[in-house]
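Protocol step 4 of 5: obtain the predicted structure for the target chain.
Materials: sequence only (see below). No template structures provided, no constraints applied. The aim of this step is simply to have a reference model before the mutagenesis design in step 5. Sequence pasted as it appears in the construct record:
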Amino acid sequence: MESSSRDQLLKRIARLVRQNKELEEQVKKLEREKERLLETTDKYRILAEGNELRGLKVSKEDNALKFNMVTVLFADIRSFAGISDEMDSGAVMDELDEIFFEFDRIISRYHVEKIRTIGDTYMCAGGIPEKNITNPVEVVMAAVELRRFIREYEAARRGSERIWNLKIGIHTGPVSATISGKSKVSYDIKGRAVNTANRIQGVSDRDAILISVMTYELVKQFFNCEYFGKLPVKYTGNIQMYQVKGLLPGLCVDGNTALPNDAFRVKFGLIQFTDMQEVILDKLEKELPDFLFYHNVKHTVDVVTEVELIGWAEGCSDEEILLLKTAALFHDVGHTVSYDDHEYQGTLLARRMLPEYGYTDEQIERICKIIMSTKLPPRPSDLLEQIICDSDLDYLGRSDFIPVSNTLYEELKAQDKITSLNDWNRLQVKFISGHQYFTATARRLREVNKKLQIERIQSLITEG
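Step 4 output (structure tokens):
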């Protein structure tokens, strides 16, 4: 390996190790945050539904849910006075209703929540009621499609004539949300982020999508944006604004800057993976049996980190990295259902969940095949399967092998699958002696240490 490539790999290793430690710390923090949010949500729902029975009034302000990162969109769509005066007012309102109906359909595809319409102003927000880190991209993507729809809608009816003036403003920041309704739940949001998005929309030009610098920093790797100017905001100072032209050239289909291609979906998927990872790690934290001392949250995080490390070193593409990380995330989640066939159970959950995150049928099949390749004894049939198999048994060549292997012993002992530590050590020597890493990267990083492990274990075996 050339010196520059080796240095780059070492830097990536250091970064991934650091991320691994940060993820472990975040697991417990996220668990506490989710419990707090669930308690708040349940409290509000119970109070609201029991309002009539107890004769009490619920203060929405006291029971507001707090969201740290929500992307708020205001769309103002007004008819041009000169042209619309020539049309019947009823026909204008009918068109506006049609447009708003289509707006509802578009934003729902991007998991954006409609807040309300006020006259000819349409308000929606991403990141509620479920928190996620992808909402800035989803809201801007929805805005691009809203603009495309208006253009196509008018072209189909009037050719080159235009009667609708669409102006969009978007900002990302914290909000508080209150819930109303029983059969159909709706949300009302308040906060400086809402006011800022409204003001940005107010200075937007015709047919323009303006975003704040806060949103820009979160979406600039996806969209072609031009600097627009500054907006004075009370208590905040000047906020820089950018105009969204459309998707970046490499992320759209045949130059259509409103139509995302496969490269966009993979890039978005790598970011969205963080949200999915929180869901799965939370599931593992809550539902894994107490006797799983080895196949726990830490092991899953380790494998997710390792497949990325080995994947990049082996020259995998972005899509292959996404498939590997997803398979690693799901490869042990089946332990929440069954121990002996947990790989298969993991594929069942993957098939149920992954379509919700935009994975294609082909990607899901590939992910399930990668998961099943981790079933012992490993028999990988391609590079991606080799990578996850090496990552799953990475501990065999690590310096912490003995304490990690002891947790696996305790796990098997709790299920009466092993009788004594002495028998376990003999089994380990036999297994490691017959094991070989599949990828060049794993062999280079772990094979030497693995040979030392055999000597260490043999010294622990007592005869008799």
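Step 4 remarks: The longest helix spans residues 3-49. Residues 3-37+265-392 form a domain with the Hypothetical protein af1432 fold (CATH 1.10.3210).
Proceed to step 5.
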